[in-house]
Write a structure and sequence with these properties.
The structure is a homodimer. Helix content of chain A is 75%, strand content 0%. Chain A is an all-alpha fold. Chain A is globular and about 60 Å long. The mean pLDDT of chain A is 94.
Chain lengths: 224, 224
């Protein structure tokens, strides 16, 4: 049975993702769970602690998938699995990316943890890109690989904010939000496309088709 | 002689860029100008009106430079001029990009104007990319051109936020802020690099060298 602590975290995450972290109070979370505010405070002193713990979960998930398998070369299916993991994590923690600047401004400790997380993840990401290059799925100089990595990171971290800046809230229901997030993965594929080789290049159109919304371009989806 | 209205706008912009829009009140602006709050209110009813007018200036500048010259083909020097204009505008309105989500959440009217501005700018940007392609400086399919445009836009709009999320405030003085902004232009050049042809490709290293901070990679600058 799920503990109250875990249920608070799951419920807070769902509410933050749906309404934005700023619009949700600890009272909203307690009410949604039908527990008393006192019971919630027993587990978390305030919303900052809840956000902090949700970030820890997110961090652990990213660290777990952003690994190069030991003892075998990477394949194009690994490449797809990385993209899929990025998508799932962007979706699950979309409140976090949407309000990153605000959340970091509100919590100096979280800011330091986020910078550490970014440094580690960028380092792991570079290992993955090197692994793809080693497997002949990517061709790029060290300089190209590093600039590609930074651009991919900025795209992943900023995509949700980009969408929310351009699509009015009343149009952005959960379905469109999910469609546009998949379109963000398509944009990452386009970023990497010029460097793909071998099997990865052969499957470029397959990968694009899997994430692009039909024949619609990103701009059409945003401004329809 | 500069009008009081213009002086208020210039001073507000300088303070917003230095301290962040949220930390600056209309009283701070009046004090910096050595005018009474009443005098300021005569020109602007509140900070929202000041932000709105600063955005109008920014919009006008972007619209002015993001044009394809009539009656002649684009050159690689035009390409450099676009990059330089992007840099200047990112620098001048850096408070805006740093706190975009917050500013749009606080002002529904600004949100609509920003979406219109993005739509028009992306349209103009596509014309510029088509012009570069027409001049033989870029080779890309329509699909590649549009995804490149979206990725460039996200990079420009998100770069300042990316830097501020990763570099602690006490390390980020004006000099490092400016260095990292130039590094953002280098990242845009890297984004476009695989598609460059002719004169633009011949000058790729020149363009990179003009914006990159020596031999330092972006990650070294961020996490040194």
């Amino acid at each position: 049975m799920t503990s109250t602590r875990e249920r608070i975290l799951d419920t807070a995450l769902a509410l933050f993702n749906r309404h934005g972290e700023r619009r949700v109070t600890t009272n909203h979370i307690a009410a949604e769970l039908a527990i008393s505010p006192g019971n919630l405070y027993y587990h978390f002193r305030n919303k900052t602690e809840i956000v902090s713990e949700l970030f820890r979960r997110y961090e652990a998930r990213v660290e777990a998938f952003l690994q190069v398998p030991v003892g075998r070369a990477l394949t194009w299916q690994d490449k797809v699995a990385y993209l899929e993991a990025i998508l799932q994590n962007m979706w699950q923690a979309r409140f976090f990316h949407r309000e990153l600047g605000h959340l970091l401004d509100a919590d100096e400790h979280l800011r330091r943890r986020y910078a550490d997380f970014a440094r580690r993840s960028l380092d792991q990401g570079l290992q993955v890109y090197c692994g793809l290059r080693h497997a002949g799925l990517l061709e790029a100089t060290d300089e190209e690989l590093e600039s590609l990595l930074v651009n991919t990171w900025v795209l992943i971290a900023s995509w949700t904010g980009f969408v929310h800046a351009l699509v009015p809230g009343e149009r952005l229901d959960e379905e469109l939000d999910r469609t546009l997030l998949r379109q963000g993965i398509y944009q990452i594929i386009c970023l990497e496309a010029p460097y793909l080789r071998g099997e990865a290049l052969e499957h470029l159109d397959t990968m694009k088709d899997a994430y692009r919304q039909g024949s619609h371009s990103t701009l059409e989806l945003l401004f329809e």
